[in-house]
């Protein structure tokens, strides 16, 4: 193979490798040094009866410029991505302590501590669970059904009409039989209709952001109590 073909293939290979994001050792300066060595070797070993023309040298210089430009662009983008990741992490920390709604059908019923009135009477703490739903369209009738850990239906909540989008919902623990449900985990389903037609309804679980984690790939995840690790893009609403 001719030296000019070797040089051309070497540059194109480097350029393709950079484009695919494959790790390559060496900087843009090292690539330029390698090119100059190849160019000198090519000129020293060219056929005296068929020397290189200006167009061929110009073409190879253009290839070098392209490869160097892509290398520098990749380095700049890597620096920019690192900076954006740091900023994203800092912004995400502002969500610590806030409640979020994400896709899921579980909820946790918690009871507040009992208190005492002025006369010493014990006032039972109230129970509360937060959940939500996301409608693909407005609905004339929305129904939530809550089940205990054994799968038994304990509460049917008719919400009436609701607009499209995210709808937060709270449950005070009251069951269909009039008693109060015990604290713990429950699951729920959502049904929505409009004009006799089913409307797309996605159940949303509630949790409180406890911490933020930055991954090795510069991704940012939120650690949410009762839910686990989620991405920022998983959040449907911040409460």
Largest sheet: 12 strands, antiparallel
Judged by helices, strands and strand pairing, the structural class is alpha+beta
Unreliable spans are 17-25
Q: What top-tier CATH class of the largest domain fits best?
A: Mainly Beta
Oligomer: single chain
Morphology call = elongated
Helix content: 25-40%
Alpha plus pi helix count: 3
State the CATH topology of the largest domain: Immunoglobulin-like
**End-to-end gap:** 67 Å
Mean pLDDT: 81
β content, as a range? 35-45%
What does this structure look like?
This protein has 239 residues and is an alpha+beta fold. The protein folds into two domains: 3-77, no CATH class; 101-206, Immunoglobulin-like (Sandwich). 31% of the residues lie in helices and 38% in strands. It has helices at 3-19, 28-44, 54-93; strands spanning 99-103, 106-111, 115-116, 122-123, 127-135, 139-147, 153-162, 165-171, 184-194, 197-198, 201-214, 220-224, 228-231, 235-238. Strands 1, 2, 5, 6, 7, 8, 9, 10, 11, 12, 13 and 14 form a twelve-stranded antiparallel sheet that branches. Strands 3-4 form a two-stranded antiparallel ribbon. Helix 1 (3-19) runs antiparallel to helix 2.
């Amino acid at each position: 193979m001719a030296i000019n073909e070797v040089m051309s293939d070497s540059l194109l290979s480097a350029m393709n490798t950079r484009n695919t994001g494959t790790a390559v050792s060496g900087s843009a300066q090292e690539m330029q040094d390698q090119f100059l060595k190849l160019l000198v070797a090519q000129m020293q070993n060219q056929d005296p009866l068929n020397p290189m023309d200006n167009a061929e040298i110009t073409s190879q210089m253009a290839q070098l410029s392209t490869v160097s430009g892509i290398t520098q662009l990749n380095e700049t983008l890597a620096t920019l991505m690192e900076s954006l990741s740091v900023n994203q992490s800092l912004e995400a920390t502002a969500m610590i302590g806030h409640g979020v709604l994400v896709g899921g059908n579980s909820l946790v019923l918690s009871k507040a501590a009992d208190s005492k009135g002025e006369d010493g009477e014990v006032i039972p703490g109230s129970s509360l669970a937060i959940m939500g739903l996301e409608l693909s369209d407005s609905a004339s009738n929305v129904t939530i059904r809550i089940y205990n850990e054994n799968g038994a239906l304990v509460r049917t909540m008719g919400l009436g009409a609701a607009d499209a989008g995210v709808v937060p919902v709270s449950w005070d623990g009251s069951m269909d039989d009039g008693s109060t449900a015990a604290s713990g985990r429950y699951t729920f389903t959502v049904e929505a209709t409009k004009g006799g037609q089913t409307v797309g309804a996605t159940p949303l679980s509630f949790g409180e952001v406890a911490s933020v984690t930055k991954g090795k790939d510069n991704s940012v995840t939120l650690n949410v109590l009762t839910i686990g690790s989620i991405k920022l893009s998983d959040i449907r609403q911040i409460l």
